Amino acid sequence: MKARKLLIADGDSVARKEMAKFFEDSHFEVETTASAAYAIAKIVQKQEPLVILGDCFEEKIAPVDVIALMRKCNKNLRIILVSDDSSLDTLKRIREDGIFYHALKPHSQEDNEELRSAVECAVQAY
Fold first, then answer.
1. What is the pLDDT of residues 13-25, one digit of tens each?
2. What is the CATH number of the domain that holds 82?
């Protein structure tokens, strides 16, 4: 069986650890980082087909800018943005950059299941 790889990039250490545990329990090979630069480097190396991207990072860079850079590095990359920011300008820009899915940060088991469904669809679409 092909390894199901997932990169979680989020400056929120609690959310990052919870999502990592959830997906490891779902039989994913998970790598995590708080650094947008590290995540982009992994994308440049074409090592990650799927990224769950948070809305804050060690560096002071907006998620929309990270998405644009990732998209330029790998047009086939599946990006799932996990963010509580739902401003119209932000949503319009990230959709134009071609994210796969936008979800609110998981706060319950139901939220985790929604995120897992999105990840499963992204894996199948790859």
1. 999 999 999 999 9
2. 3.40.50.2300
